[in-house]
Specification:
By secondary structure, this protein is mainly alpha-helical. The protein has 4 helices and no strands. It has one domain: Non-ribosomal Peptide Synthetase Peptidyl Carrier Protein, Chain A (Orthogonal Bundle), CATH 1.10.1200.10. This is Phosphopantetheine-binding protein.
Length: 85
Amino acid sequence: MEALKQELKEKIVSVLNFEDVKPEDIESSDALFGDGLGLDSIDALELIVMLDKDYGIKLSDPKEGKAIFQSIDTMAAYISEHRTK
């Protein structure tokens, strides 16, 4: 699970083109939206595409995404349960 969390941090920094944030700067329990990393709805779309492309997970319900994208911890738990790749 820790390897998956590290992989997610690296992918988020890469996919979202963060210049001032390194994977090691992100805590697994930090909020991804709002006061945490401060991601927005465009970033959420990028994360949805990443889940589909890298893990074979298709999200169709936006409410589902809100729960999944709370933190690296919640993303990793969801991916480990639902991944097809």
